[in-house]
Amino acid sequence: MPNTLEHWKHTPSTAGVVFSLDLPYRPPTNSIGALLWRGRMCVESTLGLSIMEPWEKVATLMFFYSLLLLTFTSVWKFTPLQLSLLQERLTYYFYGHEEKGAAVVTRVVSRLTGHNITGEL
User: Fold this and answer.
1) What are 44-82's pLDDT values in tens digits?
2) Per-residue confidence (pLDDT) for residue 121, from 0 to 100
3) CA 73 – CA 65 distance, rounded (Å)
4) Backbone angles phi, psi at 2, to 5 degrees
5) ∠ CA(30), CA(35), CA(37), 5° rounding?
6) Cα 14–Cα 28–Cα 70 angle in degrees, nearest 5
7) Which residues fall within 8 angstroms of residue 99, CB to CB, at 6 or more apart?
8) What is the pTM (predicted TM-score) of this model?
């Protein structure tokens, strides 16, 4: 990290903000890069990453990125199961008994349209 005037005045790209080890001093010109720069500045100043050696910074960031990856993976795998359980519970709370799949849709649509969809009289 050179300590020159050009380095201080350098405006980084969005990829430079996200992937470089050194935090640039100025935000990028586009709004998404500036938002990412602000977030990275907050994380680096909170965790003290700006005063670490490069290998310490890589180790710390790898640890936090792996935790983030595990969190997103668990949300991705866990959400469909929770949505199906939520649908069953809401069906029970709204109708007083459990119905599966198409029966719920048929009942809701028949109430909305005001006539018998199943063909029964």
Assistant:
1) 888 888 888 889 988 988 998 899 999 999 888 888 777
2) 47
3) 12
4) -70, 150
5) 95
6) 40
7) 91, 107
8) 0.53
